[in-house]
Amino acid sequence: MKKSVLVTGGAGFIGSHICKMYLSEGYQTICVDNLVSGSEANIVELRNDPAFHFYRVDIGDVEEMEELFKQFRPQIVNHHAAQKSVPYSLENPMYDLDTNLGGLLQVLSLVQKYPIETLLFSSSGGALSKKLEGIEKSTEEDVPQLISPYALTKFAGEQYIKMYSEEYNFNFTVLRYANVFGPKQVPDGESGVIPIFLKNLEEGNVSTLMTYQDMPRGCTRDYVYVEDVVEANRLATNTPLNKVVNIGSGTATAILDIYEQVLKAFSKSEPIHIVGPRPGDIKRSVLDTTIAKKELGWIPKFTLQQGLSELYIYYKTQHIKK
Ligand code: NAD
């Protein structure tokens, strides 16, 4: 019999790609999402597959969630539901706590009652980075800065998972993502610069580079293509490592370089407006991915330019559909 996987946040940007992967791997896939930031459009192509089941449910809804665990008895839980914004977590720490930690604990209480084999958790390599100097990269062992409620709840979530994995006897992998980009990502201001640049180019608006005086090409970020993130989830489902693993390109790219690569991939030429820094923006962010490579056998297949080329093809098809 096919194994069942319950994907929380499965109608979101990353979650919807992950649902698609599980279906193609032959899993019965139960997608749970309250659509607060995800959308049914993201999973429309999956709805015809009889192995796909979508439930518009809030992970905090005890009764409905229990009903799903009772009905499907998933062997795998892949937890992607979250509020994903650092600034929003600073403005609404209670919401962040309820969703990102309360929601996870709700899922873990069901895992206690309805045992599973494996849990995957999407954490954040950027938010849990230490302050990087020069060419340093962020490792899983570094002590994170924890300077936002989002960072705190993701980090606390990782500790709860480690603790309960022993107690409730399941395997796990915590995947700490860098900045993920790819099709279905929305330019909501919290998703990194690529969808924002693309929206500006489409609407004829000038993009802005907010940076520090000593970083004239902008702060650096680590961009990883969504298909590579999906592959990390596939590998970690097959071989859970019972540890935290960074998933990123391992390459620090300055924002201005990202903008120039976007222009190149989309055959555009628009100047960018350079202004002072956004308060609180970290200067450098890049992940060390040695563990992912050595222990998961994960190697990113897409460079930034290749990912952008894929994104260009996706945008073109979306326009043709319209
Ligand atoms: P997203 O907002 O597209 O996905 C989150 C999904 O969770 C959405 O579909 C949303 O509707 C759903 N959701 C939120 N609260 C819920 C609740 N209470 N009950 C049920 N569903 C709920 O964001 P994303 O970029 O796809 O992020 C997915 C996960 O990856 C998040 O946990 C995020 O913190 C993590 N992450 C993302 C990035 C990135 O670059 N996108 C980087 C690091 C970590």
Describe the structure.
The protein is globular. The protein has helices at 13-24, 62-72, 86-91, 93-113, 149-167, 193-203, 226-238, 255-265, 290-296, 304-321; strands at residues 4-8, 28-32, 52-55, 76-79, 118-124, 171-177, 179-181, 208-210, 220-221, 223-225, 243-247, 253-254, 273-275. Helix 1 (13-24) links the parallel strand 1 and strand 2. It folds into 2 domains: 4-181 and 225-248 and 287-303, 3-Layer(aba) Sandwich (Rossmann fold), CATH 3.40.50.720; 190-219 and 253-281 and 311-321, no CATH class. By secondary structure, the protein is α/β, with parallel strands linked by helices. Helix 1 crosses helix 7. Helix content is 40%, strand content 16%. It binds nicotinamide-adenine-dinucleotide.
Task: Furnish the topology, listing elements before pairings.
Blueprint: E1 4-8, H1 13-24, E2 28-32, E3 52-55, H2 62-72, E4 76-79, H3 86-91, H4 93-113, E5 118-124, H5 149-167, E6 171-177, E7 179-181, H6 193-203, E8 208-210, E9 220-221, E10 223-225, H7 226-238, E11 243-247, E12 253-254, H8 255-265, E13 273-275, H9 290-296, H10 304-321
Parallel strand pairs: 1-2, 1-4, 2-3, 4-5, 5-6, 6-11, 7-10, 8-13
Antiparallel strand pairs: 9-12
Bound molecules: nicotinamide-adenine-dinucleotide.
